[in-house]
Amino acid sequence: MEFVRVIGAYIYLLHVIQYLHILQIVCLQETKITRDMLDEATALVEGYSSYYSFSRKKSGYSGVATYCKNSCTPFQAEEGLAGTLSSHEAKIDFYDSVHGSFTDEGLKALDSEGRCVMTLHRFKEEETVASLIVINVYCPHAGDNDERLAYKLEFYRALSLRCDDLLSQGYHVIVLGDINVSHRLIDHCEPDDVTSFSKSPSRIWLDGFLVEGGGKFIDSFRYLYPTKEKAFTCWNTKMNARVNNYGTRIDYIMLSSKLSQSLRECIIMSEVYGSDHCPVKASIALNFISSTQLPALCTKNFKEFSGKQLKMSEFICKRSLAVGSADELQSKPDVSEPKKMRLSQKTTKQQSSLLNFFASTSVTSRENVSSLQFVSSTTESTNSFDCNKSLSTATSSSVGLWKNLLKGPAPPPVCSGHKEACVLRTVKKKGPNMNRQFWACPRAAGHSSDLNAQCNFFLWSSAKR
User: Fold this and answer.
1) Which of 12-26, 230-244, 290-304 has the lowest average pLDDT?
2) Which of 12, 80, 251, 325 is in Cβ range 3.0-4.6 Å of 274 for a Cys bridge?
3) Is the pTM of this model over 0.70?
4) What does the UniProt cofactor note say (predicted)?
């Protein structure tokens, strides 16, 4: 079977769904949609069942989804890591370590951002039937000194504890998604501080999660390609960094150690565009047993897609008018209206579309000609020749005056490295300079040794957005 991990917003999600027929399980992160935004074409893909987790904090944020082919329909599916969102019949259970390590408020916070979907599968293993948990996660983003770091580390800890409980019950486990940390120096294009790189709290956690650091999981890509360089999965799109493959590897498919014997391939699909991340695909030799009943969390059980509840769109449908004469479609004018207004209504064509406002101004009918002549004759009664001459003189004078007063924006500075016109960027990081603008080299980001990549030119702009 094949697993694929994909990240991207809703439009990218739709793009990936077109290729679902060639994959068994597809896990998407950062879908950025809420349940009311999910349409039927996306939720109900032929040949697949889908399972979503939506952010409860705000719209257009976070979110994950798992699509399973009918040949490997899960026996259970659960939303979240801590079991605070799913009903009892939808829970996979085994929360002892997680519930014993967090407060009720902390457990709700872990699940509130829509960062996890878990599916329970079964497959034949020699003479027995084995159970597999697929954990699709979108781990929080945070810098080492960011206020979100504490939440990120708590999410990591909960993930580890839940995996420990599942493994202790004899389950095989796959954790895949955007882990939001590059593991080794080889997984980063150019770290700022090489000496303290491995001391990052996020990397310390990942070390302990993987086998080489005493954990119970393997990084499927590095298991097969331990020394492969420039194997990145994420690039800064604002800096056009993908052009020079100046990125990081922060997206993983991690298998509990016993599954390593079944791993056949793991590839980074860098040729697939549409997001700042690219998909990662793993092929694992497992003989799945498909469930005959869909889990409660499946989108096919949603009221809006099961026929139990009508959507608002059903009440608002396009209505067509019967074909008739123009006189039948127009109401009779009020006899109390002034004669001039009735004349205007009679000589003006009925507007049938908003597009008429953007139509060509060329005269195409006798009726339009009559209308234009009426307006023109009214204007000419005020000596149009002298008026036009005075208007032309005044316009020329005012244009010259405005040109002297408003000289337009100054040309952008040129960068020191390539002598090319710079581009204006805005600081998005929280701090005293947030929303302040600066000039930077227009070229794509790249390694500092690459002379064709972006140079280090920097100049503050006086503007602040």
Assistant:
1) 12-26
2) 12
3) yes
4) Probably binds two magnesium or manganese ions per subunit.
